[in-house]
Amino acid sequence: MLKRFFCLAALTLLALFTWWVLWFMVMGALTGEGELLATIGPALQSEEEQGAVWCLLPSWPTLQPLVQLLLDTPVFFAMFWNACKLVFPQVAGQMAVAAPAAWAFSKLRFPGRRALYAVYLVLMVLPFQITMVPNYLVLDKLGLMDTPFAVILPGVFSAFPVFIIKKGFDAVPQSLLEAAALDGAGPLRCFFSVGLPLGLPAILSAATLDFIEAWNAIEQPMMFLQDKSNWPLSLYLSNITVEDLGLAMVASLMMLAPPLL
Questions:
Q1: Which residue range is the domain that position 27 belongs to?
Q2: Are 36 and 158 contained in the same domain?
């Protein structure tokens, strides 16, 4: 019991570091502009080294920053829907491409399978800064620059979801596929009736991670979308000045809501 108590206490302490950030954002969204400038403003505005003071609860809670963002900031909604138009097709396309590719790497045997999978692994570990120039040249030749497809198409063919989903398909028993084949199921029937239902946890995990990555992407839309009217919500926060601390808190909270859900 004593060991369990110390383990629970340690995990609770670690969890507080995560929950403190969420509490900071929620309470900041309910705090007035004047109180924010008085508490954390000196640490952000003053050139001199001054400490910030933060209270667990606001002295005078207000919904004014939320009203200002939702009613008086139409550019926020425009960028929110731009983000949805970029992220949801990208994630759907990733799952449509990655699931069959992962099934092929996991259950099919064909010449060059290991070499091709090694190429996938190399592409997965390459950062965006290395693939940025080739992607830019290809998109420019295809005439897709400054369109939503400039962000969607490179993301659809990402190698990371293939790696995640393949690990889930590896757990599907081979004996189950052999039994399905004896019952007359072909390769496609085995994939749709056996592979997808049993590999659903891996597919959902990959979709969740891809959604978070696409939702928070900054470099890709900044490089491939020159028209600011096509920018997603991830590029909106950088346009908020220090004088709008309340608006920044509410915008950060609203941006966190879809990945959290």
A1: 2-74+236-260
A2: no
Q: Which amino acid is at 14?
A: L
Q: How many CA atoms lie within 13 A of 237 on its CB side?
A: 17
Is residue 180 a contact partner of residue 189, using CB atoms and an 8 Å limit? yes
DSSP structure string for 117-172: HHHHHHHHHS-HHHHHHHHHHHHHHHT-TTSTHHHHHHHHT-SHHHHHHHHHHTTS
Q: How many domains does the chain have?
A: 2
DSSP for residue 191: I
pLDDT in tens, 2-57: 899 999 999 999 998 888 888 888 888 888 777 777 777 666 665 556 666 777 77
- Amino acid present at 187: P
Q: What is the pTM of this model?
A: 0.83
> Are 230 and 103 spatial neighbours (Cβ–Cβ below 8 Å)?
no
93 and 200 part of one domain: yes
Q: Alpha carbon of 168 to those of 12, 41, 92, 188, 203: distances in Å?
A: 30, 48, 18, 18, 8
Return all residues near 247 (Cβ < 8 A) that are at least 6 apart.
65, 68, 69, 73, 240
Q: pLDDT (tens digit, 9 = 90+) per residue, 171-183?
A: 999 899 889 988 8
